[in-house]
Amino acid sequence: MFGCIAAGRLVQTNLQQVDVNKYVFELSDAQTINHLVVFLLGTIPFEPGFAATVHLLWPNKEWQFLGIISNEKPSAIFRLRTTQPNTETFPIGNATLGISIEPLEAVLQQQQAQQMQLVVKSNQMNHAAQIAQKILENLYNYVTSFMQDSSEGVLPLKAFQTWYDNLGRKLANDPNYLSDKIQ
By mean pLDDT, which of 18-27, 79-88, 142-151 is the weakest? Predict the structure, then answer.
């Protein structure tokens, strides 16, 4: 019913059924996989009102929702690099690709929930970038106040240490010090 291709590898059709409407593919040497294609073979379509969610399970982690496939969208490409745990701390080996056939409404709800999480992550990243920008502006303003009319722009290292200590003290007194400057 399903197939999958890890970029640069042969097609996998060795699907294992683990429960009613739940299937898995074992992905060997998973840390080397960048992209994964999951598709319907075309032999058996979903019954009307049904689709499938696609999930990935790294060792010692929880299932991660990747996306969906349906009769209307019978294949999908997923980028795995962003879902992988840090391979430097431990070797991964195998990962498991899970496919769950569910009512279309439940599938669409999971997809919508994932999209909302991406919006939240994007907002958090924007907030972090804004805080970093404020830190850099604070540093620049502080160190340029020491500059003389010299084209070389030499600055004593002590100025950086003083700035670091001052910013640390301000943050200790008011943890929202930088956040307040953004709004």
Answer: 79-88
For the stretch 163-181, pLDDT in tens is 878 888 887 887 777 666 6
Q: Can you list the positions of beta strands (E) in 22-177?
A: 22-27, 35-40, 50-57, 64-69, 75-79, 95-103
The answer to whether the CB of 112 falls within 8 A of the CB of 42 is: no
Cα(53)–Cα(55) distance, integer angstroms: 7
Q: What is the pLDDT of residue 181?
A: 62
Exposure string of 145-175, with b = 16+ CB inside 10 Å and e = fewer, is eeeeeeeeeeeeeeeeeebeeebeeeeeeee
Q: Output the CA–CA distances (angstroms, integers) from residue 81 to 26, 32, 33, 38, in the order listed.
A: 17, 9, 7, 16
Whether the model pTM is above 0.85: no
Which residue do the tokens 């700035």 mark?
Answer: 163
Letter string b/e over residues 87-118, b meaning 16 or more CB atoms within 10 A of that residue's CB: eeeeebeebbbbbbbbebeebeebeeeeeeee
| Residues 74, 38 contacting (CB under 8 angstroms) | no
Question: Locate tokens 């943890």: which residue?
Answer: 175
Distance of alpha carbon 108 from alpha carbon 49, whole angstroms: 11
